[in-house]
Amino acid sequence: MQEKEVIIIGGGAAGLAAAVACHQKGIEDILIIERGDNLGGILQQCIHDGFGLEKFNTSLTGPEYAQRYIDQVANKKISFLLNSMVVGLTPQKEVAVVNSQGLQHYRARELSKYKVSIAVLEKEDDVGWGISCRNSGVVHAGFNNKPGTLMAQFCVEG
Description:
The chain is an alpha/beta fold. The protein is built from four helices and seven strands. The protein has one domain (2-123, 143-157): 3-Layer(bba) Sandwich (FAD/NAD(P)-binding domain), CATH 3.50.50. A hairpin with a 4-residue loop joins β5 (85-89) and β6 (94-99). It starts with a strand and ends with a helix.
């Protein structure tokens, strides 16, 4: 089992920003786990501009905005896995991941340090604001998930 200080599930805008913020706070042993072929999440599909006005003081398209964060992740040498699906979380803060290398196990030290199972960071006043039950790629609370699935475990245990 590999141990990491912080494990971030999802390499979209929030995951990338969280990784960069952790690194800026002095945490270097970070792993981003992304189920898709590349980092950037839904931003890669948002071709309109207007992103980045607050963070980068310039208007960027979604892919340009994502690339700014991807570049920061690369420059800071933050580790990431692509095409990797999280298939389990244990009460011992272990994360099970399946990818082309098979089943891998990781342990997140920061979660263990604070004795929490899952830390949810949300920009909005409410968790899952703007998320619909059709977006099954987002772990959220408030929807009926099939019992026994990972999403149901998050809603119950998280």
